[in-house]
Amino acid sequence: MVKAYAYSPSRLATYQGCPRQYYYRYVIKAPSKRHAAQSVGISLHGALEAVQQAGGVVETGVEGAIALLASRWESDGFADKREEEAARVQAEAMLAAYLARHGVGEGTPIMIEKKLTGRYADVPLLGIVDRVDRLPDGTLELIDYKSGRAAAHEPAVQQQLAIYRFLIKEQLGEYPARVAIHHLAANTRVAVDLAPGDWSGLLERAAQSAQSIERDEDFDPRIGSWCQRCDYNRRCIPFQRAQIESADQV
Fold this sequence. Notes:
Helix content: 40-55%
Structural class: alpha+beta
Number of helices: 8
Shape: globular
Number of strands: 5
Order of helices and strands: HHHHHEEEHEEHH
């Protein structure tokens, strides 16, 4: 099995969800389509990064920020122009609401969309951190933007934050004192406050999954209702077989 040069949270979560999906996406790199929600998320992340690079909303204003969103807008995955335009209007509203409430934050951004790497238990890890602020008391806050429905209690989200938290420590020599998810659709920020042992347990799970990937030769699928939403279900013979068996039982 060819090792990955580094394991990102999304790569690990894919394997944990279904090894066969991992095989299609990362081993043979089978084509997949981008979904509309992914395009909205990419566009909003790009706009937030651009606003900070320009000096923040104080420099760009809300209208300037919306113009930056337009310049970074991703059009893939929408059913038609009407759906895309509705999504664009919604994204503009999310961006404006965020900047109105959090544009001038408590802390000073020191990392924006920063790619970080490090090794945990000899496993190479990779993460792109949305934002790290230096707070007035000198501590750090990690903020991860979510444009979709991912919740702070979900194991994949907590694993992602644990990896980011560890990589920030590797880069800056200190863990963030605060870790938060910012839900752009609701414009709410949720603190993720876990015990040190819980953060370590999430990292252990990530490392074990990476080690399993490197040993795996079969990438057996996990068949379930989620397969209906998988981009690779037409390629997946076990899923197709399960569909036939289910139809025969009706």
